[in-house]
Amino acid sequence: MNEEKTDENKNNSVKTNEKKRNNKLSSSAQKLLEKNSLKLQELIEESYKNCIKKSDRDQFRQYTPRMLWGNPCKYFPTTPLSGFQSPQLFEKFHLDTLFFIFYYQPGTYQQHLAAKELKKKSWKYHKKYTTWFLPYDNNVRVVNDKMEQGNYLSFDYESTWSKQLKKDFSFEYIYLEDEIAV
């Protein structure tokens, strides 16, 4: 019986030694965990300062190349090539190119030529939504002398740069851009 007690005492002492060792490990691990969690918290707080805001997405930024040198080389062209002012060239451009020119070269003759070519291809510019619409499936019907309604393809230049189908869209003529003659 004494032997059993001795064995039991040995087992108990081994278990208490293991618990002490585990407590030592867990306390050092705990310190490391606290240190890492504080560092992680600092990093997260710092990253929140650089989060993307809705206002960042909404800003329209036009690229303006900066002049690195005060006096450019005399061989560097200062005016666009005359070929890029030709309406015949714009007839060959793909739709994406025409949309890019229209939206990213505002106030230029090239924007005017791109708009003219889009109108030739049956696209209609909506002044309120500042986007282009194309009648889809020839099922657009004139509701009255102020509007027409039907399915249209619209070009979404802000978020997806693609054509999207707008079902039963009402196109009011007061928003139709009709100053550019085709």
From TrEMBL:
Which cellular component terms (GO) are annotated to the entry?
CCR4-NOT core complex
> What gene name is given for the protein in this entry?
NOT5
- What is this protein's record name? CCR4-NOT transcription complex subunit 5, putative
Name the UniProt key words of this record, in alphabetical order. Answer: Transcription, Transcription regulation
Specify the species.
Plasmodium relictum
Q: Which PANTHER family match?
A: CCR4 NOT-RELATED
Name the Gene Ontology biological process terms.
regulation of DNA-templated transcription
Annotated spans, Disordered? 1-30
Where in the numbering of this chain does the NOT2/NOT3/NOT5 C-terminal domain appear? 50-176
